[in-house]
Design brief:
Oligomer: single chain
CATH class of the largest domain: Alpha Beta
Order of helices and strands: EHEHEHEHEHHEHHHHEEHEEE
Number of domains: 2
Low-confidence stretches: 124-129, 260-264, 304-313
CATH topology of the largest domain: Heat Shock Protein 90
Radius of gyration: 19 Å
Distance between the termini: 38 Å
Strand content: 15-25%
CATH architecture of the largest domain: 2-Layer Sandwich
Length: 313
């Protein structure tokens, strides 16, 4: 039974978000807040599972809400809503610690999916932590068929490995989980099943119907997603490779451009770039490698290979 705090200075919008949550998430308990100061007061006395908050609010703004939440309730995921949809606002929120973001114009389509994804990614697994915390490194390989229902269990498994090794706090574990979710679903939908982001932008129902059909049709049904995971005291890396035809990474819309902030495809890449320190694609465009450094590293003197490298600052 998730306990969710909904914060917005508009009573109408607060009621709308609350109604959507109660309708689609059984047994959810929703508490409302009218401003940032009330958010901080609520989390001081209540153990919430997730905060859904407007970025622009009176008294205490979105950045301070994120900062104070991390201090008061470490690991508590915060989903930020923005009305204007600017790239700068989304990046500021993500870099300040938000687990995800929503454009208010897309709330009715994306609210429940985003909440469910973030809640799933933020689940803490404490079993075997004390026994396995002495591990210096570990690696794992997976072959995943085009069944999206297997994505969340795989991510939870990988998150558990980070937690039992005590490599990072719960907030970082959640953000890495969101980056993995975007990468794995992209590999299945856009890589193996060759579904266009534009199709989902136009009509999500058609997108998912075609996905279900292609899962059982050749050549799509014969393809897999291969995952290589490695974690050490210095860094965490994931390589995800699909068996689709690949794509030209240079033709992908720049997710940091204002005109692409509403793009579904651009949103996924923006989340991945914001949460991981280094993002690299192979030349064919069917493999992504994501790295999170746990210790400061010096920048390389020169590129080590010819692959396209995208690195956040």
């Amino acid at each position: 039974m998730p306990n969710i705090l909904v914060a917005d200075d508009s009573p109408v919008e607060r009621s709308l978000y609350t109604a959507l949550i109660l309708k689609h998430i059984p047994f959810a308990d929703v508490v409302q807040a009218a401003d940032g100061a009330q958010v901080l007061a609520e989390i001081e006395r209540t153990d919430f599972d997730l905060i859904l908050t407007d970025f622009q609010m009176p008294k205490v703004d979105g950045i301070e809400v994120l900062q104070q939440t991390a201090r008061i309730r470490p690991g508590l995921p915060v989903v930020v809503m923005t009305g204007c949809g600017s790239e700068a606002t989304a990046i500021r929120a993500l870099q300040a610690g938000a687990a995800s973001y929503l454009i208010k114009g897309e709330i009715s389509q994306r609210l429940i999916e985003t909440i469910n994804n973030v809640l799933a990614m933020s689940k803490s697994r404490h079993n075997r932590r004390r026994m396995l915390s002495s591990l210096s490194n570990q690696s794992a390989s997976f072959v995943l068929h085009n069944d999206v229902s297997l994505v969340a269990p795989l991510i939870i498994f990988l998150q558990e490995q980070l937690q039992v090794m005590e490599l990072c706090n719960d907030s970082l574990v959640t953000r890495i989980g969101v980056a993995l979710h975007e990468s794995l679903t992209n590999a299945i939908y856009h890589g193996n099943l060759e579904l266009s982001s534009e199709l989902r932008q136009e009509d999500e129902a058609i997108f998912y119907e075609l996905a279900d059909q292609r899962r059982f049709d050749a050549p799509y049904c014969n393809r897999c997603v291969r995952v290589e995971a490695f974690a050490s005291r210095d860094s965490i890396s994931y390589t995800i490779r699909d068996e689709g035809p690949g794509f030209d990474i240079n033709k992908v819309k720049d997710p940091t451009a204002d005109e692409n902030i509403f793009s579904i495809g651009g949103r996924g890449l923006l989340l991945i770039r914001s949460f991981m320190d280094q993002v690299t694609h192979n030349s064919r465009g069917n493999e992504i490698t994501m790295v999170k450094h746990l210790k400061p590293v010096a920048p390389p003197a020169s590129p080590v290979n010819s692959e396209l490298q995208l690195q956040t600052v």
